[in-house]
Design goal:
It is a single chain. This protein is mostly beta strands. The chain folds into two domains: 5-173 and 351-393, Immunoglobulin-like, CATH 2.60.40; 183-347, Immunoglobulin-like. Helices cover 5% and strands 43% of the residues. The chain is built from three helices and 24 strands. It has helices at residues 44-47, 92-95, 99-108, and strands spanning 5-12, 17-21, 25-28, 36-42, 51-61, 68-69, 72-73, 75-86, 112-117, 127-129, 141-151, 163-172, 183-188, 197-203, 207-209, 214-222, 228-241, 247-257, 267-274, 288-289, 317-329, 336-347, 363-367, 386-387. Strands 3, 5, 8, 10, 11, 12 and 20 form a seven-stranded mixed beta sheet that branches. Strands 1, 2, 4, 9, 23 and 24 form a six-stranded mixed beta sheet that branches. Strands 15-22-21-17-18 form a five-stranded mixed beta sheet, with no helix packed on it. A hairpin with a 2-residue loop joins strand 6 (68-69) and strand 7 (72-73). The longest helix has 10 residues, at 99-108. The two termini are 24 Å apart. Pfam families: Arrestin_C, Arrestin_N. InterPro entries: Arrestin, Arrestin-like_C, Arrestin-like_N, Arrestin_C-like, Arrestin_CS, Arrestin_N, Ig_E-set. This is S-arrestin. Belongs to the arrestin family.
C-alpha cells in the first residue's frame, strides 16, 4: 500500500484563515535544512478587507515570560520572517515550490494561496527542558512557530481570534557514517600501594539510536592493595544553555548499580547494558526533550551537531551524552571513587525517503495536533483563539 499523503490543517477562531501543511517536522541535515511550505485558505467575507500574513519564528525561552533578571529578558526571538500571502504579491504559480502545494491549490480552490520559507543555516534545533510538577509558565526551550493572521497591515494589532499558530519542530537525524567506538582508560595510584589500579571502558559503537541498548565493556585490572566495593554505571544527559547563562543541567537518564566487587590483585571483564529512555524519566525535572512531554512523538533530546563556522552561543541549548563509570574503592579512612566518562551520540535514524511517485494521489486531512498521551488533555501549543478546522473551512470534494 502506498504511503498516505497526510495534510495537517488548523483554522483560526473567526474562520478567516486556515493553514494546511504536509508535515510538522523539518530535517536539519547540517549542510541544508528542509524548507517550510504550506497553503493558506482564506474566507474573503470573514476577512472584511484585511490582509493575510504568515510568519516563521524561532524563539528561545528561559523561564516564565514575565521573568526578568538584571534587565535581561528571558524570551528572545532568534529569527523572524514574514510573508504577505493575501492579497498575493506575485502570481500563485510563482509562489508554488513543491508538489504538495500544487496538489493543495487544486484541492482547495481559488481562495488558497501558497507560502514558503527557508531556514537560515545558523538556527538551533528544537529542544525543551522538562518542567517540574510545580513549575508554571513557559519552560526553557527553543521553539519554532508558524503563525498566520489577518490584519489591516503587518504592523497592526493582531486579534487572537484572527490568528492561528502551529508549533513545528526542526530536527536532526543521525549521519550515515559511524565514528570509531569511543574508549577511555585510566590508571590510579594509591598511597601505601606498590601497584596501580587500571580501568578501561569501551562502548560497542559511537552512535546510538533512541531506544537502542548501549553495551559498555568494562575491563578492570586491580593490581593495587585496595578493594573495589561496587561498580556503578550511568548515562548522563548534559544540556547546556549557551545563550545568556551557560548553565549546564546534568541529568542521569539510566543507571546500573551492579554491586560487583573486585578484590585486591583480581580482575574483572564484563559487559554492562544501559538503556536511556524518556519512559523511565517522565517525572524528572530538567530533562531535555525534542518536544513537549505531552506529545506522544517526543523523546529524550537528540545530541546536538553543529555546522562548522556557526557560533555555539546562538544555538540556545546544546545537548550531549556520556556514559559514566564509577568504581567505589574501600579504605580504612572511608570510601573513595575512581571515575571515567565516555562520550557518545544519541539520535534518530534517518528515515527512508518516500518517493513522490509512491505517494497516494488522494490527500488525507488531519488536525494539526500531535497525538496526546493517554490521560493528558490540553492544546498542543497552548494558544488561545485557535480551533480545529471545522466544516466551514474544510476542503470541498471536486
Amino acid at each position: 500500500m502506498s504511503p498516505k499523503n497526510v495534510i495537517f490543517k488548523k483554522t483560526c477562531k473567526d474562520k478567516s484563515v486556515g493553514v494546511f501543511m504536509g508535515k510538522r517536522d523539518f530535517v536539519d541535515r547540517v549542510d541544508s535544512v528542509d524548507p517550510v511550505d504550506g497553503v493558506v485558505l482564506i474566507d474573503p467575507e470573514a476577512l472584511a478587507g484585511r490582509k493575510v500574513f504568515v510568519t516563521l519564528s524561532c524563539i528561545f525561552r528561559y523561564g516564565r515570560d514575565d521573568m526578568d533578571v538584571i534587565g535581561i529578558a528571558f524570551r528572545r526571538e532568534l529569527y523572524l520572517s514574514t510573508r504577505q500571502v493575501y492579497p498575493p504579491l506575485q502570481d500563485r504559480e510563482k509562489g508554488v515550490h513543491t508538489k504538495t502545494q500544487a496538489k493543495l491549490l487544486r484541492k482547495l480552490g481559488n481562495n488558497a494561496y501558497p507560502f514558503f520559507f527557508e531556514f537560515p543555516d545558523n538556527l538551533p534545533c528544537s529542544v525543551s527542558l522538562q518542567p517540574g510538577p510545580q513549575d508554571v509558565g513557559k519552560q526553557c526551550a527553543v521553539e519554532f512557530e508558524i503563525k498566520a493572521f489577518s490584519a489591516e497591515s503587518q504592523d497592526a494589532k493582531v486579534r487572537k481570534r484572527s490568528t492561528v499558530k502551529l508549533m513545528i519542530r526542526k530536527v536532526q537525524y543521525a549521519p550515515d557514517m559511524q565514528g570509531a567506538p569511543p574508549s577511555v582508560e585510566t590508571t590510579k595510584d594509591f598511597l601505601m600501594s606498590d601497584k596501580p589500579l587500571h580501568v578501561k571502558v569501551t562502548l560497542d559503537k559511537e552512535l546510538y539510536y533512541h531506544g537502542e541498548t548501549i553495551h559498555a565493556h568494562v575491563n578492570i585490572t586491580n593490581n593495587s592493595n585496595k578493594n573495589i566495593k561496587n561498580v556503578v554505571l550511568s548515562v548522563d544527559q548534559v544540556a547546556t544553555v549557551v545563550l545568556y547563562s551557560n548553565d549546564s543541567y546534568v541529568k542521569c537518564v539510566d543507571i546500573e548499580d551492579s554491586g560487583d566487587s573486585v578484590s585486591a590483585g583480581a580482575t574483572l571483564q564484563k559487559v554492562y547494558k544501559l538503556l536511556p529512555l524518556l519512559a523511565n524519566n517522565r517525572e524528572r525535572r530538567g530533562i531535555a526533550l525534542d518536544g513537549k512531554l505531552k506529545h506522544e512523538d517526543t523523546n529524550l533530546a537528540s545530541s546536538s551537531t553543529v555546522k562548522e563556522g556557526v557560533l555555539k552561543e546562538v544555538l540556545g541549548i546544546m545537548v550531549s551524552y556520556k556514559v559514566m563509570v564509577k568504581l567505589i574503592i574501600g579504605g580504612m579512612m572511608g570510601s573513595s571513587e575512581v571515575g571515567l566518562e565516555v562520550p557518545f551520540t544519541l539520535m534518530h535514524p534517518k528515515p527512508e525517503a518516500v518517493k513522490e511517485s509512491e505517494m497516494e494521489d488522494e490527500l488525507v486531512f488531519q488536525e494539526f495536533k500531535r497525538s496526546y498521551l493517554k490521560g493528558i488533555i490540553g492544546d498542543d501549543d497552548d494558544e488561545e483563539g485557535n480551533v480545529s478546522g471545522g466544516d466551514d473551512m474544510a476542503p470541498k470534494e471536486k
